[in-house]
Amino acid sequence: MLSRYTHRFVLILPRVAMLAKTKTLKDWAEQVRAGEARAISRAVSAIEDRAPEAESLLRELFPYTGRAGRVGVTGAPGTGKSTLVDKLAAYYRSQEKSVGIIAVDPSSPFTGGAILGDRIRMQGHASDDGIFIRSMATRGYLGGLAQATGDAALLLDAAGKDIILIETVGVGQGEIEIVRLADCTLVVLVPGMGDDVQSLKAGLMEIADIFVINKSDREGAERLEEQVRAVLQLLPEHEGWRPPIVPTVATENKGIDELARQIDLFRAHVAKDRRPRDVAYWKSWLVRLLERRVVEQVFTKGITEGELDALAAQVAAREKDPYSAVSEILLRSRL
Questions:
Q1: CA distance 333 to 300
Q2: pLDDT tens for residues 20-68?
Q3: Do 263 and 89 meet the contact criterion of CB atoms below 8 Å apart?
Q4: Looking at 24-38, 84-98, 168-182, which range is the least confident one?
Q5: pLDDT > 90 in the chain, percent
Q6: Cα separation of 127 and 137, whole Å?
Q7: Does residue 9 register a pLDDT over 80?
Q8: Nearest alpha carbon to residue 26 among 13, 14, 39
Q9: In the chain, which residue ranges form alpha helices assigned H by DSSP?
Q10: DSSP, residue by residue, 55-115
């Protein structure tokens, strides 16, 4: 039998553990806010792995977010997005601004990790404490963005980064997802690619705040610019803004100053009335978070992977319709 003192000690232990955990979490959050690269890197890994402590950390950090500018860089593969991001980062550092870079890479079919690591990309900034670079895997998420990318952007915001550059995988129509993360979206095009006009039809016209014609020293650059202007004339201005077209040659650092100037102009333009845009942004975020929570609850309480496979097999064999199958899953999950 436990003595009353031992019993009291046993009751106190969980409280001590909880206090220690809280203190550790607060220490971690303080390290992130101080911009400590190791703490930030560990936090991004926790976010990617969906570790339980990741959400608690983000809750702790959320009040300190909302200051950073988020710039999305999207476009087809081969347009030079990585080089453009590299040069933009160098420009902002020359302006004494701290920079976070999230490069969203294709998922490895074997490990689910990023095929291109941050050590391979942009090695010129490796020794710069003012830049944090992280490659993240899409993990099969439609739209070229990992679900964790939004959380990672919040984290870098709380870490005091002035500018966060988010480079996405070029996957055509799905690139519309970038709008949900970025304050300003750059759509990068290059002359001489067979899918130039097709890219314009794939929904990129609607999401671009600024068009960048990279490798503009190539033949056909002027023709591509004329095509973009012609299409823009057919579209209404969005919130009083007509996307400018900025020619660049990123490998030679040409046009980067003008591109940064246009980004500043756009951010100043939307800053006049940010409330509707911010509300729409967080509404979209809440819906995505709800979807994720529902799926997690389904697999926690409602169905196993094996049971899902069995249901899918029944649907494939036309033994059950998909609507009834989903209703059955939700019923099991008590949703």
A1: 8
A2: 555 699 999 999 999 999 999 999 999 888 888 999 999 999 999 999 9
A3: no
A4: 168-182
A5: 48
A6: 24
A7: no
A8: 39
A9: 4-33, 37-48, 52-61, 81-94, 147-158, 196-199, 205-207, 221-234, 256-271, 275-297, 305-316, 322-333
A10: HHHHHHHGGG-S-SEEEEEEE-TTS-HHHHHHHHHHHHHHTT--EEEEEEEPBPTTTSSBS
On whether the CB atoms of residues 82 and 165 are closer than 8 A, the answer is: no
pTM of the model as a whole: 0.83
**Parallel, antiparallel, or unpaired: how do β-strands 184-189 and 99-105 relate?**
unpaired
Geometric angle at alpha carbon 252, from 248 and 254, rounded to 5°: 35
Q: What is the DSSP string of 145-163?
A: --HHHHHHHHHHHHTT-SE
Tokens of 105: 């890479």
Which of 152, 162, 163, 117 is closest to 41 using CA atoms?
152
Q: Which two tokens stand for residue 140?
A: 């099969």
CA–CA separation, 276 vs 140, rounded Å?
Answer: 31
CA distance 221 to 235: 22
DSSP 8-state class, residue 135? E
Q: What are the residue ranges spanned by the domains of the chain?
A: 4-60, 65-271, 281-333
Residue with tokens 């500043």: 264
Q: Are 229 and 195 in contact (CB under 8 A)?
A: no
- Fill in the DSSP letter of residue 253: T
Phi, psi of 133 (to 5 degrees): -120, 135
d(CA 94, CA 250): 16
What distance in Å separates the CA atoms of residue 40 and residue 31, rounded to the nearest whole number?
8
- Topology at the third CATH level for domain 65-271: Rossmann fold (3.40.50)
